[in-house]
Amino acid sequence: MSDEQPDKTSLRAIARQRRRAFVAALDPLAHRLAFKAIPSPLARRIADARVVALYMALDDEAPAQRMAAQLLTMGKTIALPRVLDRLGSMDFLAWDPESTLIPGPFRTSHPEPGDGPVTPDVIIAPLVGFDRMMNRLGQGGGYYDRSFARYPDALRVGLAWSAQEMDALPADPWDLPLHVIMTEVELIEGDEA
Question: What stretch or stretches form a coiled coil here (predicted)?
Answer without folding.
Answer: none
